[in-house]
Design a protein that fits this description.
22 helices, globular
Length: 509
């Protein structure tokens, strides 16, 4: 069991390299966007359209990624390549159909989404979503084969190209256009601004597609299994409903916000503030994403062993511990992190702790989902997510017109907390796991106490304030090491300490 937990931690770290570095670098692009774009309203357009992107990506993958892991790891599965081929062809067909429909109805879609002046934005977003959806299965295949380094390398190349192109179009091209217009005027359009963010993403997605071709070819050469497709769709359809409801919980605020105000300019400006400050809370999101990449292959392979439930309980314990440490780390240094956005975005900083706690609840909910995934009762996940989605939408519709974007943050908090509670109590009846609630409660109370102690005192000097909060965070870290991560039990470090102790205290003969 310890070996399995160790491998999970290692895979989380490797997958997290792409997720964390990627989101960190994208996060560091926010200062560029908020300073280069003309106003908060333009960043509101980016926030809105990428909210749609997240929702569409879930729809176009329709749970096939989880279905792939479920069937390729079954004991009786003798032809894993046929599972891969079936999932690949299915996603290819639906992605092509989606892209074709969007291109045929580009103008109407532009009007509906409020982008009638730039329908090409919709075309680029449709292309990005279609390619990314298709590539999710080759990426899942890399995870299944344990090719974490190749997975990470392609993800990082994608991120690097996206960032380079953003800087090229938003910084270098305007500079060259001022000095030597003839060098860039044949392809560069001054004032296109937001459009170049989508252009950059589209080029990067195309590059990922070509890099993954060697991993696609084995699946494309194998025969598609129609019976297996039926099984995959039957298993994955509830996950699709779960995914739609789940991602809508996370993106409903960005999608619905512009429709809740008569003054569209005001709505997009406020959404821009919300979207920029939401990025500060992204540390929690990227930790959960890195964990998710490693956890799904882990739970389905671990299901073959006898000690699986104890392993799931231990994973949950450490997930909660590190999530709370991350939460305090971000909040204690918010005075530094806020400079990633301009002063005009500071009114939205109040959403950061609420959003981070909501994401923590979602991460716990994802951990709890093990029971219905392993027992093939994914319909329960769809029910929980549907309930959470209804709560999210209700809070947004009724409270956003009065309280603005703060209601969006609380909608996510409440719905994720509700889904977490529903999954826990139902799961304990259907597939009981002895989670360490006492430890989770202890760390929760400790983190809450340190948060109050760190944020309430009014310390005018920034250096003193940060030093004081650093001491508080180190107290939490010391408590974690003392109680749950004793250094001598870490294999590499423990053996090194034992050797050092032997050298120091042994008698030379």
């Amino acid at each position: 069991m310890a070996e399995g937990i160790g491998r999970l931690a290692k895979d989380t770290a490797v997958y997290g390299l792409s997720s964390i570095i990627g989101r960190l670098l994208n996060w560091m692009m926010v200062p560029l966007y908020v300073r280069v774009l003309e106003n908060t309203g333009e960043y509101g357009i980016v926030t809105n359209l990428y909210g749609w992107t997240a929702l569409l990506l879930v729809i176009l993958t329709y749970g096939m990624e989880t279905g792939f892991f479920r069937f390729v790891n079954k004991r009786e599965e003798s032809e894993p390549m046929r599972v891969y081929s079936t999932a690949l062809y299915s996603i290819a067909f639906t992605s092509t159909l989606f892209l074709t429909a969007c291109l045929l109805f580009l103008q109407p879609l532009g009007r509906v989404t409020g982008n009638a002046a730039h329908p090409e934005y919709i075309g680029m977003i449709a292309g990005i979503v279609a390619v990314d959806a298709f590539c999710c299965i080759p990426f899942a295949y890399l995870r299944y084969r344990g090719k974490a380094l190749r997975f990470t390398a392609i993800k990082l190349l994608n991120i690097g190209l996206t960032i380079f192109l953003n800087m090229f179009f938003l910084l270098i091209c305007p500079w060259l256009h001022r000095l030597h217009p003839a060098w860039v005027e044949w392809f560069y359009r001054p004032g296109y601004g937001v459009g170049y963010i989508f252009v950059s993403n589209a080029f990067a997605s195309a590059m990922v597609f070509f890099l993954l071709l060697p991993d696609m070819l084995p699946g494309l050469r194998a025969k598609m299994d129609w019976l297996r497709l039926k099984q995959l769709l039957t298993y994955s359809f509830p996950i699709l409903l779960l995914g739609i409801a789940g991602i809508f919980n996370q993106s409903a605020d960005k999608i619905l916000f512009p429709f809740l105000f008569e003054d569209k300019a005001y709505a997009t400006a406020q959404l821009g503030i919300y979207g920029a400050c939401f990025k500060i809370a992204v540390v929690m999101v990227m930790f959960i994403q890195a964990f998710r990449y490693a956890y799904e292959p882990f739970i389905f392979s671990k299901n073959r062993e006898q000690d699986n439930r104890q392993a799931y309980a231990r994973v949950m314990k450490y997930f909660v511990i590190f999530s709370l440490a991350l939460f305090l780390g971000v909040m204690f240094y918010i005075d530094l992190l806020k400079h990633f956005v301009g002063p005009e975005y500071y009114p939205g900083l109040g959403i950061v702790p609420v959003v981070m706690l909501g994401e923590l609840f979602y991460g716990i909910y994802f951990n709890l989902s093990v029971w219905y995934k392993l027992t093939d009762r994914t319909v329960w996940g769809a029910r929980f997510s549907a309930i959470g989605c209804l709560v999210t939408v209700a809070i947004i519709i009724f409270f956003v017109p009065r309280y603005g974007f703060m209601a969006c943050a609380w909608a996510s908090f409440v719905s994720n907390l509700l889904m977490m509670a529903l999954s826990y109590f139902t799961g304990q009846k259907k597939y009981p796991i002895a989670y360490d609630l006492r430890s989770a409660g202890l760390y929760g109370v400790l983190a809450a106490g340190l948060y109050v102690a760190g944020m309430c005192p009014s310390i005018g000097n920034l250096c003193l304030r940060l030093s004081y909060r650093t001491v508080l965070w180190l107290l939490l870290a010391g408590f974690i090491v003392k109680k749950d991560l004793p250094l001598q039990e870490i294999p590499c470090l423990g053996s090194g300490l034992r050797r050092m102790k032997k050298k120091l205290f042994s008698t030379n003969k």
